[in-house]
Amino acid sequence: MEREHFGSRFAVIMAFAGSAIGLGNIWRFPYMAGEYGGAAFILIYVAASLFLSLPIFFAELVIGRRSRANCFGAMKNLAPGSHWNGLGLLCVVTPMIIVSYYSVVGGWSLDYLVRSCTFEFMRTPTDEVSGIFDSFITSSWSPLLFFGVYIALTCGIVAFGVKKGIEKFSKYSIPVLFVLIIVIAIYSVTLDGAAAGVSYLIKPDPAKITPATCVNALGQSFYSLSLGMGIVITYSSYVSKQENLLVSGLGTAVSDLIFAVLAGFAIMPAVFAAGIEPGSGPGLIFKTLPYIFSAMGESMPVVGAAVSILFFLAIFISALSSSIALVEVGVAYLIEEKGFRRKNACIAVFCFSFVLGALCSLSFGPLSGLTITGEPLFDFLDKFSSNILLTAGGFFCVTFVGWKMSRDDVRDEFTNGGSLRLNDRLFGVIYFLIKYVAPIAVAVIFISNFI
Ligand code: PFF
Fold first, then answer.
1. Residues 6+ apart with CB under 8 A from 392
2. What is the CATH number of the domain that holds 440?
């Protein structure tokens, strides 16, 4: 069977940007920045993305495009019969777990989009609006229903294939997403009292640069670029042999960075304008923002309603483009290793994610007794996958390219077999980062989880 591949450089960057830009940028980044010192965190985040996460991104690009196979097949091709095959399996299992709980939050964003469209936040008194979130996630059916629709939509798009599904969706939705976030950011920074939020994001306070800020900024950039979970390997296996990996990788990392910073500007100035504490945890977008929309509803109902629709539409699209990538990893594995047809592979992934995700969704309410190591299932899977599985996957991928593959093979992949020019010094720096710096940095994030 002929392997599909992305049709153009724009398609490649949009698909990768879609996988990277997600809840991590809109949901996680602003509250991490809020908790760890605003501008100081952002500066370290940018440096960590370019010097540590980007080399790991390159390493995964090399594995995927060299092998032209799903994650498991990639390891089988590049290191036949070795322990590295375990890494291939890890990279298939991790996204299957992640997509299950990630889609629960995706379902919340869909629910909040519907609520925005029915003007619920405008109609609810300001002091009651954040309570909507608690009563929604602790109920049984509603979050389950929205989660089910969300994951069905994700698998439905993947079922159309790499070109007609993933590429088409990314090519249209990611530019729309940028327009949405720019419009919201412009609106947010022009609100009365927004200046404090803007200066919070642009004026670094050196006292806030602590080891915790560094580790968390690095962890966030790692999470945001979707490293260590097979996505980059799988998508890269659909990149044509003529494409320039350096440009695609840089284009993706820069889009992801710009989007995260824009999301910060969309959220933080509005939060400051409303007089709310910036570091208010994961509830920031589902509690704080509706509060702001509701308050706006009192004086400017039409603007409040419009901004809330745009906002939750942006969250929904960004989540969907990442879930699509997570699902594709398992689907590619089932097609290439187990002989499934694409449609059946999507149904199989849907069934698995639906069962695990439903348990996660219910772990906020009726199944709150369902705990692992004392934590609700959702929290456990989130922490276990982002702190342990992702970092382990990223560490072994970058170590594989730095220590198992030959330098010549890596260079060959960057230069497309010698047909692209690549400055020796630049390659030397990238290779050094892959071989020494990135593995040490990931090992530090990994160890910091235990202290
Ligand atoms: N990079 C995407 C995001 O930031 O939302 C996708 C993703 C990354 C999902 C890591 C889940 C995850 F653990």
1. 90, 228, 446
2. 1.10.4160.10
pLDDT for res 419: 92
The answer to whether residue 169 is domain-embedded is yes
Please give the share of the chain, as a percent, with pLDDT higher than 90.
70
Domain assignment present for 50: yes
| Nearest atom, ligand 1, residue 322 CA | 6
Closest residue to atom 13 of ligand 1, CA basis: 386
99 Cα to the center of ligand 1, angstroms: 9
CA atoms within 13 A on the CB side of 187: 20
Would residue 1 count as lying in a domain? no
Query: For ligand 1, is residue 234 a contact (CB within 6 Å)?
Result: no
The reply to whether ligand 1 has any atom less than 6 angstroms from the CB of 325 is no
d(CA 38, CA 216): 12
pLDDT band at 387 (very low <50, low <70, confident <90, very high): confident
Q: Is 23 in the pocket of ligand 1 (CB under 6 A)?
A: yes
**Rounded to whole angstroms, how far apart are CA atoms 19 and 194?**
31
Looking at residue 338, what is its pLDDT?
Answer: 97
Answer whether residue 433 is part of any domain. Answer: yes
H/E element holding 267? helix 245-273
Q: Is the CB of 223 under 6 A from ligand 1?
A: yes
Can you read off the two tokens belonging to residue 352?
A: 């698995």
Q: Is 27 in the pocket of ligand 1 (CB under 6 A)?
A: no
**Nearest protein Cα to ligand 1, atom 12:** 223
Please give the pLDDT value at position 262: 95
pTM for this predicted structure:
0.94
